Amino acid sequence: MTEGALKKLDRKTVRMAGFPGSQTDKDDTKSVKSKGEVKSHKSVDPYEDKTVEEIEVDMEKHRRKIEDNNNKMNIMRNDKLKSKMNINKEIAPLRQENAMLRELVIKLDKIRDDKIPYYEKLPHDSIFYRHKISYM
Asked: Which of 14, 56, 65, 136 has the most CB atoms within 10 Å of its CB?
């Protein structure tokens, strides 16, 4: 069928006919899941259920990994026997891993910041902090 003829047809007819891009094609590509694996429309984040202290430990672990990768890259850069092209090829995966880890640390920092109540972020000697604590 031509494109103009398809536009004239309603969606139900196209879906029933099984044309490319119709609903039946999408159903065929879905994987089969058991009832226990059905997830909601919200994304499931493993860090949402963790405490602030656990998140800080994970952040520190990721920061140490970034530091280790930077040290490895510096050692690779100082190797005089290899060409710059070969060095850059070896360093590329470490750079990608560092970029991913930095994004994760930023994400964890935001999650940690959201979990801390606003009054805990105030200076403890301020009037607003004392007022809030006195009414709690």
From this structure: 14
Angle (CA) 80 81 82, round 5°: 95
Q: Cβ atoms within 10 A of the Cβ of 19, count?
A: 14
- The answer to whether 115 touches 52, Cβ cutoff 8 Å, is yes
DSSP 9: S
Look at the block and give the residue holding tokens 């094609």.
Answer: 25
- Residue 96: closest CA among 74, 73, 75: 73
pTM: 0.58
pLDDT at 29: 45
| Alpha-carbon distance values, 58 to 54, 55, 128 (Å) | 6, 5, 32
d(CA 110, CA 6): 48
- 78 Ramachandran zone, left/alpha/beta (phi>0; psi -120 to 50): alpha
